[in-house]
Amino acid sequence: xxxxxxxxxxxxxxxxxxxxxxxxxxxxxxxxxxxxxxxxxxxxxxxxxxxxxxxxxxxxxxxxxxxxxxxxxxxxxxxxxxxxxxxxxxxxxxxxxxxxxxxxxxxxxxxxxxxxxxxxxxxxxxxxxxxxxxxxxxxxxxxxxxxxxxxxxxxxxxxxxxxxxxxxxxxxxxxxxxxxxxxxxxxxxxxxxxxxxxxxxxxxxxxxxxxxxxxxxxxxxxxxxxxxxxxxxxxxxxxxxxxxxxxxxxxxxxxxxxxxxxxxxxxxxxxxxxxxxxxxxxxxxxxxxxxxxxxxxxxxxxxxxxxxxxxxxxxxxxxxxxxxxxxxxxxxxxxxxxxxxxxxxxxxxxxxxxxxxxxxxxxxxxxxxxxxxxxxxxxxxxxxxxxxxxxxxxxxxxxxxxxxxxxxxxxxxxxxxxxxxxxxxxxxxxxxxxxxxxxxxxxxxxxxxxxxxxxxxxxxxxxxxxxxxxxxxxxxxxxxxxxxxxxxxxxxxxxxxxxxxxxxxxxxxxxxxxxxxxxxxxxxxxxxxxxxxxxxxxxxxx
Amino acid sequence: xxxxxxxxxxxxxxxxxxxxxxxxxxxxxxxxxxxxxxxxxxxxxxxxxxxxxxxxxxxxxxxxxxxxxxxxxxxxxxxxxxxxxxxxxxxxxxxxxxxxxxxxxxxxxxxxxxxxxxxxxxxxxxxxxxxxxxxxxxxxxxxxxxxxxxxxxxxxxxxxxxxxxxxxxxxxxxxxxxxxxxxxxxxxxxxxxxxxxxxxxxxxxxxxxxxxxxxxxxxxxxxxxxxxxxxxxxxxxxxxxxxxxxxxxxxxxxxxxxxxxxxxxxxxxxxxxxxxxxxxxxxxxxxx
Amino acid sequence: xxxxxxxxxxxxxxxxxxxxxxxxxxxxxxxxxxxxxxxxxxxxxxxxxxxxxxxxxxxxxxxxxxxxxxxxxxxxxxxxxxxxxxxxxxxxxxxxxxxxxxxxxxxxxxxxxxxxxxxxxxxxxxxxxxxxxxxxxxxxxxxxxxxxxxxxxxxxxxxxxxxxxxxxxxxxxxxxxxxxxxxxxxxxxxxxxxxxxxxxxxxxxxxxxxxxxxxxxxxxxxxxxxxxxxxxxxxxxxxxxxxxxxxxxxxxxxxxxxxxxxxxxxxxxxxxxxxxxxxxxxxxxxxxxxxxxxxxxxxxxxxxxxxxxxxxxxxxxxxxxxx
Lengths: 542, 288, 323
Fold this sequence. Notes:
A: alpha+beta, 8-stranded mixed beta sheet, 22 strands, C: MetI-like fold, flat
């Protein structure tokens, strides 16, 4: 019997010992930078991009006419050698560099610019990039005046017209068969894509830019973007040196990186992003009228806001890597932030008093409204964001102290979006905006009462309150003027109204954290997207 | 053998007692946040340390046992019981020659196949959408475990059906048929006792599976919601290597689960007795 | 007269049927099996598609929460999805195309489903082999240790190892192997082994006490013959059924493992498809998975009832030997 045990064990041992090692990730060239994104890009067509993974690829490959220097905030020439913006802000004329070529060697001239813009504006294309180029008076007219000159004319003033062209990657004329991986005029082009594994972008040999010593840019031969959903593994691979950059470092991971690689974890302070919660004010089948009455009361919303300890959220849920929010615009957005606003306070005593003034009664530690309904609501949020998942129980406890019972429901992202954007079957939601741009026009659809992302009551036919009507006016005003000063006044007033009414209770602005190996040189990261990649042609590995 | 089984029983009773009286033993309420002592290492006030929100891990473990220890085995029992109920249906009512043609048997086999291959997660996502958001935690937990129990019948059923196929041709079965016993009576007298060992094995596999599944369903808004703890959501912390490195005491619920699983296995020690087809056949044969 | 001797095994019951009759029965069984398989695949595929189609989040794009998109653009994206996915007509068209080997184009990846599956099948197949073969071997060996040698210490250690492995969450197990730079395949093996251990132990134990085996041992039959003739052959139907269940189990375990360890296999693909509510991809996966499960079941049934079934498969005939 024992002999048989030994025989069997001997037979099994080699099978168990050899194992099937997971194939090593394909070989590296010496001058390849690596980092990872959390999911597959949905498209490589730069005009069809609507999510952040595709955006990252675009940021590395896009050939644009002009580009904002994220450090100086100045607009700098790229494919366009020069440009002229008319005084009324209605038209702009670009003069291109001579001898430009796409990565597939086809020449790039003014016709390509015109064709790209017209394609972006074509309603059939439903291009998310094209949306920003629309105006209240419709499409602009695009005229090619010479092979190197193109002018764009709107019927009405178009705010931020020159900076807008940073978002329009010029695309080559489509060939007879649609290319799987499009050519580009930027520093890199997409050279390889393995779904679920990685995207590789290779150096564009035809990129026009040279450094001061005449060396053709970019310095890097290629960049491999691994698709890696698990942040823990991303971090592990960074610490092992398999990737050189962690684009978004989780606040919880900061200490570990600091300990293992001193100096590799870096912060730029508060980012433009924000975390917030709001109450559903839209009429909904499942929302009782008496609850909706609380949610529509500014006093109730203020009391909630006062009862939430934002310092604790920043300290506990974000491990100290966040700052209490002051309103819809992050203080990191120096130009647009309304500095005259008071910080949002934590004051549960005032909150309780304000609720009492509104007729709410505290009995045995539980709060009841005038009609005797217990004050209780559900707060939905998405699973998978550790800081947000930890924020919810902090809010729950804080509100518990003033007698309000909160039921936390975590949902998968698609189910959550279904509720807040389509069925409106929810009471309160905890969410955040990521990759927020500097220009506040970007969240036009959040503030317009007719907007699809008007969180608390989307797609209204006409504004339900006077202050929402006023916000609509302000947004229309700032969307139809070229003057930054006039726009700033409008945006200042908008911020004031939002803080006074608190339809959205802003919580914190997370800090922008990233990690970078010491051998990566030339980066000038910024809080504005694309944080690390805006000057990617200057990045070097030493 | 008896001592080993006895020890296993004692340990299981101790764990069950902990689940029952745990809340009384816990030093703190499970949801109390010590915001100035977050992610604390074990020691001092907190023997197992605290979690990211500063909640005492030991207290949470005590409370978590209450849900997981009772409900996961209950759900596993439901699955196995359903499979046992369905199994006799595939015992044919017709003669030997017609057995393959039995539409009943074919249909059950097909339904089992479909249920095995179904992406159940979407059923749970749909369920969450239909449940009101303010469903209480207790109701949500009960519904989740009940549904898991019902949804999980196909696994044991497939294993049972193979054993039943085997029994179909064994002597005592043919004999029982010959004496005109109906399928239910056959199941009661021979089938179920025969399946006992396999059924217990299936039950044991399902218990930890359901404990973990509950945590995954928590991410879909079902099952145990914040701030309630469960073994499943405590075990979920193990997926973050950083957390485990910082505080190995996070593995405490795992150790408890390991102990429970070993004890459940150990109950079977020395039980592989002569309760087999052959022996039963002999026993059956005598009076004939 | 023993009861077992009183009734002949089925296939011997009608000697007049002869070889031709046997072949006809076999063909009929085969046809039945095939029919059941097709019906199961069609039904499984349809129910899976329906579940995906009617789960919340199907009708919204993640981008409907992206403030950068104008209402028209969101509406256009949404409409595209709606048009593609009216269920019954979608499924009918999908099946027609599937019969020609075209499983459609993935919504989330914008790549043909067959291409995605082909690229990823290798990794997952490797892990499945590890899980299934390794798991059944290890589980079977542990079960054998617990039953055969009749040694308390062996039984206790086998039971403890199985209990320990059963309690470890498969994803954590695999993650440990991944972080230690060890082959994940072993992690899958270790995850499957305890899940087949109990059933195999019950099976071995039954066989251990069967009269035929006792008799064969008394005759001093060689261990290899013993293992083959009196253990593996009689247990074949249950082992095949267990293998079928374990295959599904292994695939179910691979989904979180591949998702957490970022293994670019079909499990990870399934997870991402589920998150994105990718109907064409999930329908294709459902068809394939149902097919594999149904195939395993059909094979199991054929093994159980096969012409050889009258031989060494059931204990009844061999029981007669000692008589």
